[in-house]
């Protein structure tokens, strides 16, 4: 008999709070230092079996960063049916409490949200990495870069059937606040463990915090229990570099440009503090970008409560409409969410449903989109407003 609890009335699965007792390393991020978190990762014997190769290379043609991790090929979980069907019996390691050490847990109106270590990290807290390697820059040589850092998972809810698409506004805000708290902890308390990356903010940001969400096996989702991934490393993702270049080249941040130049008919929903749009350069049908209207805001942890609520509400709306629209167009439900923070960006989030395969022309940088922006924006608006398409 495992720790899995199924409520008899409706068959819902959840992690028991009692399961946290044996895996709780800190009740809240505020209780631990970044140095302690690094130590938690280094001393974890389970993670040692899946350590990455600790090497990053750069493609000299376009600056793409490649992290090497042979161990991730052995991940046991595969996602084919992402959502729990009421009454259906299904094992879930998270609901069973079979997870790594938890460093943050916060109550929701129902259940709780928590952050733990990723058992199959793309990057790891290496032993003996001093400031000279922490601040090392990647150059276009075959020698590569010593890549190190931390890889986390944020579980949106302890309930298996709860996610961004069906959580209430207050709970969504709590989850977003804890994500912002992790970002702030890592960026502004890492000290010499990471290179300086932003000198324009109070407290001096160090390292890069990459936040993503994968949903569905076709786009890298490995577990159906709703979650986000957070990587903290000394490696600047290519998109971060391109955002910074954009600002240097144009004298404005990308979000400011997008909100000024994107046609009005491509607005999907206005949240006051932020706007959800179909970009005029949409690569795939129903791609969306959520842009903060204040272009000086570069990190989640810089946002006011109203701005965080706007972001959380947009996550709810965008994910909900993707989950509803993909079956209607005959596609297996799968999507990615990527957060663009840091120097040069202005904070923005991309919602990327897997509505079309990637072919050879796309590998050459020539994207062929089987849809148009006006139709996509109109359909998304109508579905969000509850109208039949």
Describe this structure in words.
The structure is a single chain. The protein has helices at 34-42, 45-48, 131-134, 169-189, 238-250, 254-261, 305-328, 360-363, 373-384; strands spanning 5-6, 13-14, 55-58, 65-68, 102-107, 112-117, 145-146, 149-155, 196-198, 205-206, 208-215, 227-233, 267-270, 274-277, 288-292, 335-340, 348-353. With 389 residues, it is of the alpha+beta class. The chain has a 10-stranded antiparallel sheet with strand order 5-6-8-12-11-16-17-15-14-13, sandwiched between helices. It has a 3-stranded antiparallel sheet with strand order 4-3-7, with no helix packed on it. The chain has a two-stranded antiparallel ribbon with strand order 1-2. A hairpin with a 6-residue loop joins strand 9 and strand 10. Helix 4 (169-189) crosses helix 7. The longest helix is centred in the C-terminal third of the chain and has 24 residues, at 305-328. The relative contact order is 0.13.
Terminal CA distance: 47 Å
Major sheet size, sense and barrel closure = 10 strands, antiparallel
Give me the Rg, rounded: 21 Å
Give the SSE string.
Answer: EEHHEEEEHEEHEEEEHHEEEHEEHH
Classification by helices and strands:
alpha+beta
**Helical proportion?**
25-40%
- Basic shape: globular
Low-pLDDT residue intervals, each spanning 5 or more residues: 1-10, 78-89
Number of strands: 17
**How are the strands of the biggest sheet laid out side by side?**
5-6-8-12-11-16-17-15-14-13
Overall average residue pLDDT: 87
Number of helices: 9
**Beta-strand residue fraction:** 15-25%
The quaternary structure here is single chain
């Amino acid at each position: 008999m495992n720790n899995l609890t199924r409520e008899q009335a409706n068959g819902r699965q959840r992690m028991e709070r009692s399961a946290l007792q044996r895996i709780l390393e800190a009740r809240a991020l505020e209780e631990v230092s970044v140095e302690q978190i690094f130590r938690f990762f280094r001393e974890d014997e389970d993670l040692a079996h899946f350590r990455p190769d600790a090497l990053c290379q750069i493609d000299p043609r376009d600056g793409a960063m490649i992290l090497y991790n042979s161990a991730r090929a052995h991940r046991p979980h595969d996602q084919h049916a992402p959502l729990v069907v009421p009454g259906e019996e299904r094992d879930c390691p998270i609901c069973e409490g079979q997870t790594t050490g938890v460093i943050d847990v916060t109550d929701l109106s129902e259940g709780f949200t928590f952050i733990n270590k990723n058992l199959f990290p793309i990057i790891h807290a290496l032993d003996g990495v001093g400031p000279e390697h922490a601040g090392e820059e990647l150059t276009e040589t075959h020698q590569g870069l010593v890549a190190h850092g931390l890889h986390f998972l944020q579980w949106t809810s302890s309930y298996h059937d709860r996610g961004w698409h069906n959580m209430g506004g207050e709970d969504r805000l709590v989850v977003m606040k804890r994500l912002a708290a992790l970002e702030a902890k890592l960026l502004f308390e890492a000290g010499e463990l990471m290179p300086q990356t932003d000198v324009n903010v109070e407290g001096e940001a160090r390292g890069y915090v990459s936040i993503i969400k994968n949903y569905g096996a076709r786009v890298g989702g490995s577990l159906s229990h709703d979650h986000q991934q957070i990587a903290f490393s000394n490696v600047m993702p290519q998109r971060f570099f391109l955002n910074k270049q954009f600002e240097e080249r144009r004298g404005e941040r990308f979000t400011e440009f997008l909100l000024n130049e994107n046609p009005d008919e491509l607005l999907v929903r206005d949240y006051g503090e932020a706007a959800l749009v179909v970009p005029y350069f949409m690569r795939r049908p129903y791609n969306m970008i959520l842009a903060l209207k204040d272009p000086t805001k570069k990190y989640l942890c810089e946002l006011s409560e109203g701005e965080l609520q706007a972001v959380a509400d947009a996550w709810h709306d965008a994910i909900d409409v993707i989950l509803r629209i993909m079956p209607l167009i005959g596609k297996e439900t799968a999507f990615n969410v990527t957060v663009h923070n840091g120097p040069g960006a202005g904070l923005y989030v991309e919602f990327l449903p897997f509505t079309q395969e990637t072919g050879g022309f796309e590998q050459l940088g020539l994207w062929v989109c089987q849809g148009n922006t006006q139709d996509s924006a109109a359909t998304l608006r109508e579905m969000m407003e509850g109208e039949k398409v």
